[in-house]
Design goal:
The chain is α+β, with helices and mostly antiparallel strands and about 210 residues long. Helices cover about 30% and strands about 25% of the residues.
Length: about 210
């Protein structure tokens, strides 16, 4: 029994280590980016331009985990436009609907702001921080904006990644679009609980709009 317990502990330790290992720089030569793009199976999900921009930020900001979440706001809110990619293992872990800020637009997000009370989404790169328990939204993730004058007011604006009832296909079917947040990237409630442990404390978030 003692030996079995040690084996179980060893397995869980290695799983956690694989999720928490430091991200290594990526070769940004066009051929290398193209190869990684195809290896991850992203052809029908996001453009190679969006992926290329995300990798540039990945190298610049050196996340603590080899995982990047991309919000592609060139797509309408009725489509899946949130992707969690494991760069080390070259695979998409999750894809999902994601809401934008209510003052960023209706179906499409076209206006962005870093200002408090704008109720708009902010573009750029974020370090994903700790899991918190939001009084309003439940399980959520802190977001630390990494780009001055672009998204560095995220904490001041209380911009977090959270779940919401209005992020679901049923809402789209009823209203022709997703519900909208106060500027936060909001996910389906069930997905939020699942991805929070994977993204917490070191993954990178990139909000892209072309």
């Amino acid at each position: 029994m003692y030996r079995v317990s040690l084996i179980i502990l060893f397995v869980f330790a290695n799983i956690n280590r694989s999720l928490d290992c430091e991200a290594l720089p990526i070769d940004l030569q066009p051929s290398a980016v193209s190869s990684l793009y195809h290896d991850c199976g992203l052809e029908k999900m996001i453009s190679i331009e969006a992926f290329n921009h995300s990798l540039s930020g990945y190298n610049k900001f050196s996340p603590d985990k080899p995982i990047i979440a991309i919000c592609d706001f060139t797509k309408p809110s009725t489509e899946e436009r949130f992707f969690i990619i494991d760069i080390e293992h070259k695979k998409v872990l999750y894809k999902s609907l994601v809401a934008h800020g209510k003052n960023s637009g209706d179906i499409m997000a076209t206006h962005f702001s870093n200002q408090p009370e704008s109720l708009q989404s902010s573009l750029g790169f974020y370090k994903i921080g700790a899991i918190i328990q939001s009084p309003k939204h439940g399980v959520a993730l802190l977001l630390h904006g990494l780009e001055k004058a672009k998204n560095d007011n995220a904490l001041k604006r209380q911009i977090i990644m959270h779940g919401a009832d209005y992020v679901c296909q049923k809402f789209v079917s009823q209203y022709g679009r997703l519900g909208r947040s106060f500027g936060c990237p909001a996910l389906p409630n069930s997905l939020m609980k699942e991805v929070a442990p994977i993204l917490q404390n070191g993954a990178l978030l990139y909000i892209y709009a072309g």
